[in-house]
Amino acid sequence: MKEEISNIKNEAIAQIMEADSAAELEEISIAYLGRNGKLTNLIKRLKEVPPEERKENGILLNEAKSTIQSFLATQKGKLSVSARKWFDPTVPGNRPPTGHLHLVTRAIREISKIFENLGYVRVRYPEADWDWFAFESLNMPKDHPARDEWETFFVDGPVDPKLGQIVLTPHTSNGQVREMLRVKTPPIRMLNIAKCYRRQSDASHFPMFHQFEGLVIDKGVSIAHLKGSLDSFAKAFFGTERKTRLRPHHFQFTEPSFEVDISCGICGGKGCKFCKDGWVELGGSGMVHPAVLKNGGIDPNIYTGFAFGWGVDRVMMMKAGLNIPDLRLLYSSDLRYLSQF
Ligand code: DAH
User: Candidates 120, 147, 173, 176: which one to mutate for ligand 1, based on the most atoms within 8 Å of Cβ?
Assistant: First the structure.
């Protein structure tokens, strides 16, 4: 076998040195190192060699393989140098790719800026939080059926007698009572943007997504203020021709509660295949429930407030008319997809 190895190696080297194109080198590489190459076949036969000779032959085979590989590489280098016969140093170079911010990051920045202009303060609260902040303090006691909607991930760990278990926040509303406890005395104008998690995955849902939550509390805050804030956001974010409407709904933590719709960007509100009746749904909102204010240590006889919580990914997709066929693409880290935007 030893002799065969050395013959094959020398034969390969001779051919490589003669080769004068990359294609030819590729053929040689396949002929020797490919799946059915000459050297590969020898390697396959190694098991037939008597055990006492196997080690030595193995070493020789490895050595032959790396020698052939390094000759291939060297010859390839030589060929490409000789191909570059004429070099013009005045030709501008290739710009290195610089990349850009992810669509969701851009949307978060834009949303923050718009609410900042309205006097909201951006805050952040834990994304793994106690059950109490995510549910109980928002008027959803344990075993309340409303909780089902928030298909929650529970974290194994210690259970606090008052705060309960730790959950991955299924919405940014966990920031509401936290903000009340932090500020203590209103006015409060909070914008909480965070990652949220729910046990769901299909073309329009991803187990991790983003929400932005507004909370405004002061003396004399009314639905008119809520509508004003949302209108103002909708016009700044989607365009001045867009309108919003409030549709009655139910949430445990607001009373009254609304679903906010925006006039369809495709048909301008006339009704089309996409929106059916001229409106598309943005997200939830309402006047903060007195029980929630109390949980945050705020006297509902003195103060009132409104809140809203919408999906960042969702409003972003509606804005641009992006028509993303599958939301999961956004989080796939596939540059072929993401670099289009
Ligand atoms: N947290 C709700 C959700 O995830 C959305 C929501 C509805 C937030 C009404 C609010 C609100 O602040 O007032 O579905």
Answer: 173
